[in-house]
Amino acid sequence: MKRVTMFVWNNFINDARVLREAAALTEAGWEVTVIAKKDMDERHLKRAEQIAPDVYVNRPLRAELPQFLSRRIKSTVVDKHLPNMLQMLKMMMLGRKQQADVYHAHDLNTLLQGIAGAKLRLRPKPLIYDSHEVQTNRTHYSFDKVYRLEGFLLKFVDHVIVENDTRADYHKQLYQARPTPLHNYSELYDIDAVDTYPLRDQFGIPEEDKIVLYQGGMQEGRGLFKLLDAFKDIEGARLIMIGDGKERRNLIDYHEKLGIQHKVEFINRVPYKELRRYTKAADIGIQFLENTNFNHYSASSNKLFEYIMAHVPVIGAKLPEIEAVITHAEVGLTVASESTAQLTAALERLTGDEALREKFRNNAREAKLKYNWNNEKKILTAIYKSLE
Known about the structure:
By secondary structure, this protein is an alpha/beta fold. It has helices at residues 16-27, 67-72, 76-98, 111-118, 143-153, 165-175, 199-203, 224-231, 248-258, 272-280, 294-297, 302-309, 320-329, 340-351, 354-367, 373-386; strands at residues 2-7, 30-35, 48-52, 55-58, 102-106, 127-130, 159-162, 180-181, 210-215, 237-242, 264-267, 284-287, 314-317, 332-335. Strands 3-4-2-1-5-6-7-8 form an eight-stranded mixed sheet, with helices on both faces. The longest helix is centred in the N-terminal third of the chain and has 23 residues, at 76-98. The radius of gyration is 22 Å and the shape is globular.
């Protein structure tokens, strides 16, 4: 059995995309080891475990400087970045020990680890760079610095994967070669076989009120403050927001400032498999990314496909990849990503029109047969076959 070593810059507890890729490779006869990271406050996580057939994870503990040494270091830059550098070094060393047949780096922050594992050896191994984001054009990222770094590291890469065609075209403009698009679709499953999470019972939501769901990261640029603004004028609906992130506390404070506590409920992050139960309970799903950078502009959004898989009508931003799916499949409404007024109007229309929601639900039953991981994973296995 051939072996793959993957690198991720997270603890690999809730990374559905990477787990889908790993499972697809095991079905094709590969053994997969994922090297993740573990912070000091995550010491309860297992250092090594098997999480699925032929899928293993290793989590080297992130190193922290001793307090006496940290106090002596006057440079905040060193104090901030040295633990990450030590973490990367641990991952590199572990990756080299794996002796894998292929190395697979997820995102730019693991590409150095991938190069160390695949290329710094007498007999170099193939290296795949799987970029889940547009690294050169993200919030708080410097284009020039990332462009130079990514461009240099790409010289060591044998195959590049990006999320969709818009991003593949952009990558080609920057670096000449066009990567392979691999969409982050949900795996195909029967939502009718999933038990509905009792959101109405938990929060006392009347049957006549519609449940509007946002699930995902609570970060800037997700349109979440505009969503709360829109809900000031919405009646007969309850907004459920599931997830965590840097803006969660600010969002809670803002909804209290608006005085809409009776309309909005916040739920902590839910394990991916369990999330289906919550999604099924929704009448409308929200994916309202703002056009703040090319990374958002070009996003396909895995949440969009999770709504489709659960037959939930969608309100999404008029960004190229999101709009193309929603309008072509007729599974929801699209609104300008900067417009709170359009979002409010779409919410009013969709919450008040049962026939329209039913039309979108029925269309989603058909769309899911196209937009699912069972179809997309063939592209991944073909890439690996080309490297044999």
